[in-house]
């Protein structure tokens, strides 16, 4: 079936929710504050996984030569660091408003990032493929989870790497992400997440396999209140981050 003829992975309600926050993506103390806190650890993980998978040197622009798609890129919090590391970055998001902010911020930063608004299925239709696809804190917001993974697989070159992060569906994540972050600490607007849509690691692994992707690495993302920082851990109970590969040469 042609990708554009099939149902989109975009959930209109989720699209509208994040479009309304577009102008505050880069406010480190605003509604995206948790993502700003997460970003140093997320970027470090992405860099290290990409270097190891593709055999890249340890240098300031260690990702030079790689093509990377950030699927659900928002206003570019992940695209910009990856571009500074030398990658040729494409960012796509369902919210036109977020892409407008992303383009303006990249221009101010002197970064050449290919930003596009719309559904990732359009990239599949165009025959686009990338060395790596990054999609962080996105799967819990899509309309069709199986199609989301199929789209990612189609957008990866053989041997390519998929990098992801998402909340787990546990009592601990409900207390931390919903009760803590949204209601008590008010780091996020209430209603940002629907805990019922979170995937457990086993569900994530099964969805990867159904799309022809193989899990390579899985780590926990844990928060330390004293330092107000996130770090990699063996605790998957709240948030987890990982990588998977597409079979091929």
Q: Summed up, what is this model?
A:
This protein has 249 residues and is of the alpha/beta class. The protein has one domain (3-246): Rossmann fold (3-Layer(aba) Sandwich), CATH 3.40.50.
Describe this structure in words.
It comes from Hankyongella ginsenosidimutans. The protein has 249 residues and is α/β, with parallel strands linked by helices. The chain is built from 8 helices and 8 strands. It has helices at 12-19, 33-54, 79-84, 96-109, 121-125, 145-155, 171-184, 201-210, and strands spanning 67-71, 88-93, 114-117, 130-136, 156-167, 213-224, 229-233, 239-246. An 8-stranded mixed β-sheet has the order 3-2-1-4-5-8-6-7. Residues 1-6 have low confidence and may be disordered.
Topology:
Elements (H helix, E strand, L loop, with lengths): L11 H8 L13 H22 L12 E5 L7 H6 L3 E6 L2 H14 L4 E4 L3 H5 L4 E7 L8 H11 E12 L3 H14 L16 H10 L2 E12 L4 E5 L5 E8 L3
Parallel strand pairs: 1-2, 1-4, 2-3, 4-5
Antiparallel strand pairs: 5-8, 6-7, 6-8
CATH superfamily: Vaccinia Virus protein VP39
As for the CATH topology, it is Rossmann fold
The CATH C-level class name: Alpha Beta
Structural class: alpha/beta
Number of helices: 8
Low-confidence stretches: 1-6
**Beta strands, count:** 8
CATH architecture: 3-Layer(aba) Sandwich
Helix content: 25-40%
Q: Report how far the terminal alpha carbons are from each other.
A: 26 Å
The total tally of domains equals 1
Question: Which percent band covers the strand fraction?
Answer: 15-25%
Mean pLDDT: 88
Strand count, sense and barrel status of the largest sheet are: 8 strands, mixed
Q: Label the overall shape.
A: globular
Order of helices and strands: HHEHEHEHEHEHHEEE
Radius of gyration over alpha carbons?
Answer: 17 Å
How are the strands of the biggest sheet laid out side by side? 3-2-1-4-5-8-6-7
């Amino acid at each position: 079936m042609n990708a554009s003829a099939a149902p989109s992975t975009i959930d209109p309600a989720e699209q509208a929710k994040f479009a309304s926050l577009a102008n505050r993506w880069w406010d480190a103390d605003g509604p995206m504050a948790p993502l700003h806190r997460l970003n140093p650890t997320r970027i470090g993980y992405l860099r290290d996984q990409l270097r190891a998978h593709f055999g890249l040197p340890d240098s300031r622009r260690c990702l030079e030569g790689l093509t990377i798609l950030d699927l659900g890129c928002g206003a570019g919090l992940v695209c910009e660091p990856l571009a500074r590391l030398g990658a040729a970055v494409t960012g796509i998001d369902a919210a036109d408003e977020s892409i407008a902010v992303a383009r303006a911020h990249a221009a101010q930063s002197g970064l050449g990032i290919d930003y596009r608004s719309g559904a990732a299925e359009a990239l599949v239709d165009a025959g686009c493929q990338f060395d790596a696809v990054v999609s962080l804190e996105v799967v819990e917001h899509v309309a069709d989870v199986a199609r989301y993974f199929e789209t990612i697989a189609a957008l990866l070159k053989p041997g390519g790497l998929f990098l992801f992060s998402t909340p787990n569906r546990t009592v601990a994540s409900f207390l931390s992400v919903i009760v803590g972050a949204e209601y008590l600490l008010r780091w996020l607007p209430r209603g940002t997440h629907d805990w019922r849509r979170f995937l457990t690691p086993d569900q994530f692994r099964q969805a990867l396999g159904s799309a022809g992707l193989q899990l390579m690495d899985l780590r926990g993302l844990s928060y330390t209140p004293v330092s107000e920082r996130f770090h990699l851990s063996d605790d998957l109970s709240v948030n987890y981050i990982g990588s998977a590969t597409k079979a091929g040469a």
